[in-house]
Write a structure and sequence with these properties.
single chain; DUF2833 domain-containing protein; Phage_T7_Gp13; alpha+beta; about 35% helix; 4 helices; about 140 residues; Aminopeptidase
């Protein structure tokens, strides 16, 4: 997946962590919390997403997602499935959030569409000290 990342996602990984996605993604999947893949009809991975626990904050999960350009060919399906998956993530953590690179416009639009609040701009975030936007969403209904 790493060699096929959208350029915006590659830039975000490097700006935030300073680690090439080819090393960061396997580590995130192996050492982080639950992760899932978007697979197209041909069996090709077009995106990855997950939620990681936050030390000392058992009700807060850090959500993340990276995609290839192929994701835009499946936009309708992903938009239809996103609220379902968001509810599943909220079953794990009532509060979800993270930081998104301010340059990553498609992710910001998607997060807003899902109901996340853009809390503040952190002007110098990550190893590259670039503007990132802190976002969060509190579960609106109790989980069954």
């Amino acid at each position: 997946m790493a060699p096929r990342l959208r350029e915006a996602d590659r830039r975000e990984c490097l700006a935030h962590h300073g680690i090439d996605p080819q090393f960061l993604l396997p580590y995130s999947i192996a050492e982080g919390g639950p992760a899932w893949a978007f697979i197209d009809d041909g069996g090709k991975c077009i995106g990855l997403f997950g939620v990681d626990p936050v030390d000392q904050h058992p009700y807060f999960g850090l959500v993340w997602m990276v995609t290839s350009e192929d994701v835009f060919r499946h936009k309708k399906q992903i938009l239809r499935d996103s609220p379902v998956w968001l509810n599943k993530l909220h079953d794990l953590y009532p509060l979800l959030g993270n930081h998104v690179d301010a340059r990553n416009r498609s992710h910001i639009r998607w997060l807003k569409w899902l109901g996340f609040s853009m809390l503040r701009v952190v002007p110098e975030f990550g190893v590259e000290r670039l503007p990132f936007i802190e976002f969060a969403k509190l579960r609106s209904k109790p989980c069954a």
